Amino acid sequence: MNLPIEEWLFFFTFPFASVFIYECLNHYFPKDHIALIEPYITPILILFFFIIGILFWSHAYTATTFLLCGGFWLYHYIYVAPIYRNRFYKGLLVGYIPFILVNGVLTGAFTHQPVVVYNPEEYLGLRFISIPLDDFAYNFLLQAMVITLYENFKKKLAVLGTNSNLQ
After folding, report:
1. Among 92, 102, 110, 143, fewest CB within 10 Å belongs to which?
2. Do the Cβ atoms of 65 and 134 come closer than 8 Å?
3. CA dihedral 155, 79, 69, 157 (to 10 degrees)
4. Angle subtended at Cα 50 by Cα 94 and Cα 1, rounded to the nearest 5 degrees
5. What are phi and psi of 131, to 5 degrees?
6. Which pLDDT does position 3 carry in this prediction?
């Protein structure tokens, strides 16, 4: 609970930004280009997340992030229609652009000193530019949860709207 205000604000702005990117892409680019490969991508990702989480069990950040990704994405694969994952992957890829820019600043890619310092014993130790690869999995999980909740609420609101129009 002792986080700086910027960290708290992140948890309010990130969901909005994720949904905004997701909705804009679905509105302006409705064609589903990922449908043919989604049945292969999703199980591979699930397996990848679980394997990394188990292999690096001794690294708390890595194990937690990757196992939660694997578990959540397995749930999604079993219980949620593939169309949502197709749309999600599109938004995820575009969402990684601002993620790389902002996280790059925080981890020292464009500054002399990083704002955020990671305990080397708790993560993989592999980085893209200056960003720990574990952060990409964390971003994946956060976006997946936000978009899944968003779609669930959107569907429930549509049903409520339909029922109120009938009365």
Report:
1. 110
2. yes
3. 10
4. 70
5. -90, 125
6. 66
| Cα angle value 16/7/110 (rounded, 5°) | 95
Task: Compute how many other C-beta atoms are within 10 angstroms of the C-beta atom of residue 9.
Answer: 11
- Tracing tokens 């509105």 back to the chain, one arrives at 27
| pLDDT 10s digits, 80-128 | 988 899 999 999 999 999 888 888 888 888 888 877 777 777 888 888 8
Instruction: State phi, psi for 127 to the nearest 5 degrees.
Output: -130, 150
Residue type, 105: V
- What is the pLDDT, as a whole number, of residue 99? 86
pLDDT in tens, 34-53: 888 999 999 999 999 999 99
How far, in Å, CA of 41 to CA of 89, rounded?
A: 10
Residue indicated by tokens 């690869």: 133
Contact 50, 66 (CB under 8 A): yes
Chain length of the chain:
167
Q: Which residues contact 145 (CB under 8 A, 6 or more apart)?
A: 72
- Burial of 80 (C-beta count, 10 Å sphere; 0-12/13-18/19+): middle
Distance CA 74, CA 42 (A): 8
Backbone phi, psi, residue 164, to 5°: -70, -25
